[in-house]
Prior knowledge:
It is globular and about 50 Å long. It is an all-beta fold. It has strands spanning 12-13, 16-20, 31-38, 57-62, 68-71, 74-75, 81-85, 91-99, 107-115, 130-133, 136-141, 149-158, 161-162, 175-180, 186-187, 189-191, 205-211, 216-226, 229-239. Helix content is 0%, strand content 46%. The strands form four sheets. Strands 10, 11, 12, 13, 16 and 17 form a six-stranded antiparallel β-sheet that branches. It has a five-stranded antiparallel β-sheet with strand order 1-2-3-7-6, with no helix packed on it. The chain has a four-stranded antiparallel β-sheet with strand order 5-4-8-9, with no helix packed on it. It contains no helices and 19 strands. The two termini are 23 Å apart. Copper (II) ion binds at residues 54, 57, 70, 72, 170. The site of copper (II) ion (CU) has 5 residues, from loops.
Amino acid sequence: MSHDTPGGLQVSQGGYTLVPETTTLTPGEKSEFRFRVLGPGGAPVTAYQVEHEKKMHFIVVSRDLGEFRHLHPEMTSGGVWSVDLTLPGPGAYRAFADFAPEGGEAMTLGVDLQAPGDYRPAELPGEERTSTVDGYEVTLDGELLPGKSSGVQLTVTKDGEPVDDLEPYLGAYGHLVALRAGDLAYLHVHPDGVPKDGRTLPGPGITFYAEVPSAGDYRLFLDFKHGGKVHTAEFTVRAGDRKE
Ligand SMILES: [Cu+2]
């Protein structure tokens, strides 16, 4: 893993540029969002590597980190990616394209989106290690250590019982996105183990390895699949608080 600028902070990086057809959307209205990635020669990239079962992961968050969407656009002709997108309310949003061009390195490009209207940004919730979503309770254990890879474990329960039959989602039992509060730096987090590797159980625990670039607050979004549906649990974790 490289140690230069974190992902997601730039719209253009290493010769690749994220080009949305529009950056202003009507709040609360579903629209087709289209974008391209232009390569070093200026032509749209049409060949991508599959990562976590998809060629393109598209994440949209509100700038206050209160809203999170993890979408998988379809590639249409000419390297144009298309996805149905609803920005739930007025405000400023950040969209991330997480991909690896064929023959190139994985990268995450980011661009601002706007939904006009009055809004009040929400405060980032304080550190919280338990998240409730769709009747599931998810607990996060472990620390994020600045500049160091560290393991965090998420444990899923429902009605007080451990959930031990998680369903594979994007080639793992969970998919975790971590964003730094303040600038929305986008961090790659890697699951430990994959389904059917002979050692990775389908819950209730899911282990990830993350390396955060600095001390501070991070918002974590865990997607997991159970009962045929994808659920997203959200956490605030403060990195660098504890002495080693
Ligand atoms: Cu994805």
